Amino acid sequence: MTRTIIRSAFGAALLCVTPLTTLHAEPAAEAQALDIAKRAIAFRSVAGPGNQTPQLAAYLKSVLVAGGITDVTVTPVDDTAYLVARWPGSDRAAKPLVISGHIDVVEAKPADWQRDPFTPVIENGYLYGRGATDMKLDAAVTIAALLQMKRAGYRPRRDIVLEFSGDEETRMKTSALIAEQLKNAELVINIDGGGGRLGEDGRPQFFTWNGAEKTYADFELTVTNPGGHSSAPRPENAINQLSAALVRIGNYRFTPQLSDLTKKFFEEAAKQKTGDLAAAMRAFAANPRDEKAIATLAADPAYVGQIGTTCVATMVNGGHALNALPQRATANINCRIFPGVKPADVMATLKQVAAEPKLTIRDVSEGSVANDASPMRADFVAAVTKAIGKTRPGVPVFPSMSAGASDSMWFRYHHVPSYGASPTFIKESDDFSHGLNERTPIDNIAPGIAYYESLFTDLSK
Question: Domains in the chain, start-ordered, CATH in brackets?
Answer without folding.
Answer: 11-213+372-460 (3.40.630.10), 233-363 (no CATH)
